[in-house]
Amino acid sequence: MPSLATWNINSVRLRLPIVLDFLSRYAPDVLCLQEIKCTNDQFPAKPFAEAGYAHQAVHGQKGYHGVAILSKVPLSEIAARGFCEIPDSRHVSAKLDFGRGPVTVHNFYIPAGGDEPDPDKNPKFRHKLDFLAEMADWFDDLVFDERQIICGDFNIAPHENDVWSHKQLLNVVSHTPVETEALNALLDRRNWVDLVRRHIPIEEKIYSWWSYRAKDWSASDRGRRLDHIWATKDIAAHSSACRILRPARGWSDKPSDHVPIIVDFS
Prior knowledge:
By secondary structure, the protein is of the alpha+beta class. It has helices at 16-26, 45-50, 123-141, 166-169, 177-189, 195-199, 217-220, 233-236, and strands spanning 3-8, 30-34, 55-59, 67-71, 76-79, 91-97, 102-109, 148-153, 193-194, 209-210, 223-224, 227-231, 239-244, 261-265.
């Protein structure tokens, strides 16, 4: 059964052992990584190839951001797009074939937005909103009606059950109304299907990120669902299950603050 995973790894070189362990244990056909925090030539291509992921699309930069797609199957039409005229590495895409025809996978790392949810006072928050607006315009310009998957760290928890406290986080970046409305409008713009919520009821609280600031992240459980996998309806119809690997937040003494999400396709 084919599967695709997304994971903000927060430095792929620092956390290479846990990524390799994840690939060995769960063996997704495709893994999309965000915040690889290295240039293309620094990316650990050889260990991933030896693990069975010889097909790679990497768009990195020194010390910050960066995205990559690792695949068991060949990749074609690899591309990377810039946003907001800022030279950050926040997108990479590739076409692949799970066995039912070609699918284009877009891997995004949407800006976090800083701490102050005011675009007039905080350039980082303005950048985030502009990035979302440019994504929406881009989707209108291209043929995004079918055979597409977009995934990654969107840095927005859109629903009240995607955060530990809707009321307390309404004015906190990642859950403010202006962000959630923008993301939901993007979801509706091309009739994307949120594959996580297709398989996990909206009534259930789910998270994919827990802050490093918590002394005991699991006990306090103040998480947010910042990581997403969307698909066009034709691809979504073949999705069969979704798993959020909560235990990964405790893997090793230096885990990522995000955990992997895996979607299976029949």
